[in-house]
Amino acid sequence: MPLPLPEILDSGNLTRYDSSSTCQRWFCRQCGASTINIDKGDGADEWEVATGLLHFVDGRGLDGRLKRVQLWVDDVKGDGGAVPWINQGRLLGHGDIGGPKPACRIFTQSSPRCTLPLPNVVLSILRPDDESSKSNHGKFEAGLDACTSCRLVSGFEVTSWLTVPRHLIKSGSTGLNDLLSNTSKLHHYKTSPDVGRYFCAKCGATVFYYKQGLDTIDIGTGLLEPLNERMVRVENWLAWQKYPTGVAYQEDAVDKDFIANLAEGMHSRDSQQ
């Protein structure tokens, strides 16, 4: 890419977050969508564009246009994360070097509470009781989502959520509603009149999805930091939904072959367990 930076990065519409000394991450100031990463490692800078934002004028979507690879698989080698669901677990062009830690994480613990240390915020989640978790045996429901609005406000073709009853979420000495209205800590974007999205004001991390009238709120599972290193599915806290509900809104996918591959991989893993 030419220097100086392209106009879009200097337009004021994007916010820069340095996740390490060599990696810049740019996200949309308005909705929080991850847009561009710039890896300033050895050699020429590498530019990475979020595939969830790609649009082609012929309207064909991404089917067959991308050569997909799996990166940073060493970060999830404990339980594999989503790797076993993709391409039936066969790695393609993968990198096995761990990446930098995110700024916003939920630390899971052996006690019935986990905390999310956002900048200037400590958010705690209490473990659900039998009434809250229904058939999930004291765990939160989690799953993948390919819907259009999630894709556009995150920048990623697939997002992942856990669903938590609002009364189990604590924020220091203040309530959850006070946190949601504090724009110095979380930024807010509405994708429809009754749906609000919340992202970290500092790093752009996807934090909350909330639909008005519900007693629950969805939290981005990527923020969970497992008690056991690299067990990133955090299955001591999360009950991952089975195929086909484990991948919601497959009909919205911009790369239907990729999402179908992911869903089939999840189905195969479910069948083996």
Low-confidence stretches: none
> How far is the first residue's CA from the last residue's CA?
47 Å
Radius of gyration: 19 Å
| Order of secondary-structure elements | EEEEEEEHEHEEHEEEEEEEH
Per the CATH scheme, the topology name of the domain at 106-253 is Metal Binding Protein, Guanine Nucleotide Exchange Factor, Chain A
Number of helices: 4
Mean pLDDT: 83
InterPro entries: Mss4-like_sf
Explain this structure to me?
The protein is mostly beta strands and 273 residues long. It has a domain at 106-253: Metal Binding Protein, Guanine Nucleotide Exchange Factor, Chain A (Beta Complex). Helices cover 12% and strands 31% of the residues. It is built from 4 helices and 17 strands. The protein has helices spanning 130-133, 148-154, 176-180, 256-272, and strands at residues 14-20, 23-28, 34-39, 46-49, 106-107, 113-118, 121-126, 140-145, 159-165, 169-171, 186-192, 195-200, 206-211, 216-220, 224-225, 238-240, 247-248. Strand 12 (195-200) and strand 13 form a beta hairpin. The model has no long low-confidence stretch (mean pLDDT 83).
